[in-house]
Amino acid sequence: MTTYETIIGLEVHAQLQTQSKMFCGCSADYASAPPNTHVCPVCMALPGVLPVINRAAVEKTILAGLALNCAISEHAVFARKNYHYADLPKGYQISQYELPFCRDGWIEVEVEDKAEIKRIGITRAHLEEDTGKLVHTVEGVAGARLSEGRGAATLVDLNRAGVPLLEIVTEPDLRSPEEARAYLVKLQQILRYLGVSSADMERGAMRCEANVSVRPAGQTQFGTKVEVKNLNSFKSVRLALEYERARQIAVLEQGKRVVQVTMGWDEEHDRTVVQRTKESSDDYRYFPEPDLPPLVVDRAWVDAIRSRLVALPDARIARYVGEFGLDLRDARLLVADRGVADYFEAVVAAATVQPRTTQVVPAEPKTIANWITGELFRLMNAAGVGIETIKVTPDALAALLGLLAAGQINQNGAKKALGAMFETGQPPAQAIQELGLAQVSDTDALAQAIADGLAKYPAEVARYRGGEDKVFGWLMGQVMRETRGKGNPALVRELLEKALRTDH
C-alpha cells in the first residue's frame, strides 16, 4: 500500500486592535453594535470617496513582522484584489501582494508527541481590510417582509468592512494536523503578547484557511492543493485537515485526480464540501491601488517599533527554566497567557523585596508557580474569571506565601486564606486573623497537645514503641486534631518523636 505525505500551508487572518478602521475614521470596535451602524461613505464604497492609511495598523503589522523574524520591506504597496461578493462593497479588496510590509520570516514550534523543534517559514505578513459579514436566516428579520412570507434571507452587515486585517501566509512546511495546530497556538500567543490582536478564533478575530495536498512518500513534486475555509477553532482545523487528507488519499487510491477547488468545512457533519473552483492570483487581477501612494518604510521608524517588542513565550520559558528553576511543564503553563506570566513575575519580584523577618520568608519561584498553576487557577476556573480581574494582588500572594514559608500558617490554612482573599480582596494577615488560621508554633502549647493526645491512645503508643513505625503517622494525625489543625507540622513531628522516646 502506498504511503502518503501531507503538505500543509496556512493563511491566517488576524484583526488588528485599532481604534478606527483601515482606511476611514469609523470605530473598529463593532462587536456589540447594531448592524450597519459603524459605517461611512468610505467603508461603504460610495462614489467619490478616498481611503486614508491607518498609521497604527501599519505599525502593528511591522511589530508583528519583527516578532515573526520577518524582513521589513523598505517599500510597500497596497494593491486592489478584484473579486465580487455580496459582503465586499467595493467589488475589490485593498490588500498587498507583491510588495508587502513583512516577508521571509519564521517561527519555531514543538509538537507535543515529538521531541524536535520545527521551523515554519512565513512567506509574508501583509496588511489589508476586512470584508463585511453575511447573515443567513430562514425566518427573515423583525419588521422585514420576505417574498410571500416564506424562504430564506441573506442580510449584509458592513460594520466589519474595512477593519484592519493582518494576513500571515506560511510556506508549505507543515506535515500534519498536529503541526498545524501547534503553529496556530504559537502564533496566537505571539499576537496576544504583542497586543496587536485578541486573536480570538471563536469570535472571528483570528481566522484560518488551509492549503492541503498529499503526495506519495519520497516524491519531490507537490500534489494538487485544495484550500479549506471556515476554520474557526483549533478543533476545526485539526478535524478538517484530517478529513481532507483522508479524502484526497482515497481519491488517489481510486486512480482518480484531485481537483484544485475551494472547500468549506461543514462542522455539523464533520466534512469538507466544495464551495467553488479555486482561484489563482491571476484571477484576482492585482494592480497597485491608484488612490494610495507607495509607502517608504524608514529604518529609524522600524527601530522605534522594534523597541516596543516584549519578551515572547519562548524567551520567557527559557528564563523560567534557567533562572527560576521551574520544570518545562510549569513554565509553559505560565507563559501560555501573557497576563499570567506578568502576574507570576510580579509575585516573584514582590517576594524578593519582602523583609526577612520572623513573620515573612521570601517564597521561592517554584512555590509561587505551584500556587498560581494550582490553587489560584482552580479558583479562577470556578469563578470563570481571568488573571486581569482577580482581587488577589501579586504583593498579597507573595505575602501569604511568605507567611507559609515562615511557618506562620500551614498549607491547608493558606488555601483557606487564599480563598477568602480571592472573594474579598483583603490582605492575608486580615484573612488569617478573621478565619483563625494562624499556625501554633508555641513549644509549650504543642507539648501539652502532644501529652493530651498520647494519654488518650496508650495502646497505639505501645504499638509504636513495640516497633510498629507506621503507627506514627496515625498518632501525628491525632495530635494535629488536638491543635485543630493549627499546629506547625514540622515542630509537632519533632516534639512528638521526642515525647515518644523520652516517655519510653
What is the secondary structure topology, with strand pairs?
Layout: E1 4-15, H1 55-67, E2 71-72, E3 75-76, E4 79-82, E5 92-95, E6 102-110, E7 117-129, E8 133-137, E9 153-157, E10 164-170, H2 177-194, E11 206-216, E12 226-231, H3 234-253, E13 261-266, E14 271-277, E15 287-288, E16 295-296, H4 299-306, H5 313-322, H6 328-335, H7 338-353, H8 365-383, H9 394-405, H10 411-424, H11 428-435, H12 443-456, H13 458-465, H14 471-482, H15 489-502
Parallel strand pairs: 12-13
Antiparallel strand pairs: 1-10, 1-11, 2-6, 3-16, 4-5, 4-15, 6-7, 7-10, 8-9, 11-12, 13-14
Can you tell me about this structure?
The protein is an alpha+beta fold. It has three domains: 274 residues, no CATH class; 123 residues, no CATH class; 60 residues, Orthogonal Bundle (Arc Repressor Mutant, subunit A). The chain is 38% helix and 19% strand. Helix 5 packs antiparallel against helix 6, helix 10 packs across helix 11 and helix 12 packs across helix 14. The N and C termini lie far apart (78 Å).
Defining key terms:
38% helix, elongated, Arc Repressor Mutant, subunit A, single chain, 504 residues, alpha+beta
Task: Sum this structure up briefly.
This protein is α+β, with helices and mostly antiparallel strands and 504 residues long. The protein is built from 15 helices and 16 strands. The strands form four sheets. It has a nine-stranded mixed β-sheet with strand order 2-6-7-10-1-11-12-13-14. It has a three-stranded antiparallel β-sheet with strand order 5-4-15, with no helix packed on it. A two-stranded antiparallel sheet has the order 3-16.
